[in-house]
Design a protein that fits this description.
The protein is of the alpha+beta class. It has a single domain, classed as Alpha-Beta Complex (Amidase signature (AS) enzymes), CATH 3.90.1300.10. The protein has 14 helices and 17 strands. A hairpin with a 2-residue loop joins strand 6 and strand 7. It is globular and about 60 Å long.
Length: about 500
């Protein structure tokens, strides 16, 4: 029998609204699943079960009174531990904030509560979100949902694993270099990076920067569209969420939910394994080639093509470093012993750049953006692998070598995602089958400027086409095996910066 926690978010919300399922029943089921498998993967961190139960009870009382209910009414949510939650520990994965309990929600979290979400707990992250390996000295490492000895990616790794194992139906994520796309790809769920400013942020220190963005994560496209409709708004707290006097441009839930599948036969598909330069692992290339062969006939036309992203590595490295300096330079200077190796390396790198480097990076970013506009005049949609490698053991902090070639930086293996970040275009990691090692394969779907709805519609069409397909449907982790697995906390290196090199096979 299906447990309530195994329902889709949309079906659970429908049953709650029809008074056939209570929010309390759904919450208890989610808490039960957390109790069964979280020990094996360490996805959920800080929790306040009493507060969650009180919120669920209030939701049930509102349901029984009748009347309109908000979009996410009664649905349990996982909130990434980079986002402040009132009364619930928010650590950013750092010993500096190990006992930090905010006295208010940040803006996005407050919006999700207002839309009826029931916050179950926080999800694990790398220290201050730096790096795509969700491990830190406060909570330890998060294991991949398909093999806990392997990397869950990050920085939204806890959210992705919590979703994959049905601990929660929806979770929040954020994305600079692919921080919700990468873990979605590694764990067989969906991570959506919306157009810049579509989901307002009150915490982004560089308010005008289009690099760090908030977004939804879910297990299927309709659920993702539901959460997207609850997150998008014109709130003036974010300078990129601009609007016109008297007009609310984004606060129209019907734009995103319900999502109608696109007519793929009317669209022109472009596909690329590497944007001409990303260090894409051969196992990823082979999985991508199979996926392209399967989806290409669905489109009016499918051609191998890529926008010009030359200089994108250099531009992203410099522009990313400005955010690193603003957030972390003072911490590294005053609390060096409480900062991990990624923090120190990032700040050292950032301090080495000049104002000329910054100017050059901004120019190249603009050129890449304009190149994307010309590219999408010829093509409707672009697909690529979401991430350059298949998952590796989490004791390897990052891949230093891919297919026997050294990488540029510790985040170079994320370049398939961060080339798109530079442009502000919407992008999604969408699960399609598995690679040769048995891990989920994530397809990156990139839309034109402002094409958030189109990306959702294309993903919905592909999802429908592969529903029930043995090779290309969304893969599921073995929950029974996870329930019997040893605790993550028992693994050597769990709450340290210990690392071992990955043996290429």
């Amino acid at each position: 029998m299906t447990e309530p926690c195994d329902l889709t978010a949309l079906e659970a919300r429908r049953l709650i609204g029809a008074k056939k399922l209570s929010s309390t029943e759904l919450l208890e089921s989610c808490l039960g699943r957390i109790g069964q498998v979280n020990h094996a993967v360490n996805a959920m961190t800080a929790m306040d079960e009493n507060a969650a139960r009180a919120t669920a009870k209030a939701a049930d009382e509102a349901t029984m009174k009748g009347g309109p209910l908000p979009l996410l009414h009664g649905l349990p949510l996982g909130i990434k531990d980079l986002e402040e939650t009132k009364g619930l520990r928010t650590t950013w994965g750092s010993p500096i904030f190990a006992n930090h309990i905010p006295d208010k929600d940040e803006h996005m979290v407050a919006n999700l509560r207002e839309q009826g979400g029931v916050i179950v707990g926080k999800t694990n992250v790398p220290e201050f979100g730096l790096g795509a390996n969700s491990r830190n000295l406060v909570w330890g490492a998060t294991g991949n949902a398909f093999n806990p000895e392997f990397n869950a990616a990050g920085s939204s790794g806890g959210s992705a694993v919590a979703l994959a194992t049905n601990m929660v139906p929806l979770a929040s994520g954020s994305d600079t270099g692919g921080s919700l796309r990468n873990p979605a790809a590694f764990n067989g769920v969906i991570g959506f990076r919306p157009s810049s400013g579509l989901v307002p942020s009150s915490r982004r220190p560089h308010g005008w920067s289009p690099l760090p963005m908030l977004g939804p994560m879910a297990r299927n496209v309709p659920d993702l569209a539901l959460m997207m409709s609850a997150m998008a708004s014109d709130d003036a707290v974010d300078p990129l969420a601009y609007t016109y006097p008297g007009q609310r441009m984004r606060e129209r839930p019907e734009l995103f939910h319900p999502v109608a599948p696109a007519d793929l036969a009317a669209l022109r598909l472009a596909y690329t394994e590497d944007f001409g330069q990303a260090p894409t692992e051969s196992i990823v290339r082979r999985a991508f080639q199979k996926v392209v062969a399967a989806i290409a006939p669905m489109f009016a036309r499918a051609v191998e093509a890529t926008p010009d992203v030359s200089g994108g590595d250099e531009a992203f490295e410099v522009l990313r470093s400005t955010g690193v300096l603003s957030g972390n330079a003072e911490r590294v200077r005053t609390r060096p012993d409480d900062c991990g190796p990624n923090m120190h390396a990032n700040v050292k790198e950032a301090l080495g750049y000049s104002l000329q480097d910054q100017a050059d990076a901004l120019v190249r970013q603009t050129q890449i953006y304009r190149g994307f506009q010309s590219f999408f005049a010829e093509h409707s949609i672009l697909v690529s692998p979401a991430i350059c490698t298949s998952p590796r053991p989490w004791l390897e902090l990052y891949p230093a070598v891919i297919d026997n070639k050294p990488v540029r930086t510790y985040f170079h293996w994320l370049s398939l995602a961060y080339y798109v970040t530079l442009t502000g275009h919407p992008a999604m990691s969408f699960p399609i089958g598995k690679d040769e090692k048995g891990f989920p394969f994530g397809l990156q779907i990139v839309g034109p400027r402002g094409g958030d709805v189109l990306v959702l519609q294309v993903a919905a069409a592909i999802e429908a086409a592969f529903a029930g397909d043995a090779e290309f449907a969304r893969p599921l982790p073995d929950l029974a095996a996870l329930e019997k697995a040893p605790p993550m906390s028992s693994r050597p290196g769990f709450k340290t910066w210990d690392q071992v090199p990955y043996q290429q096979v």
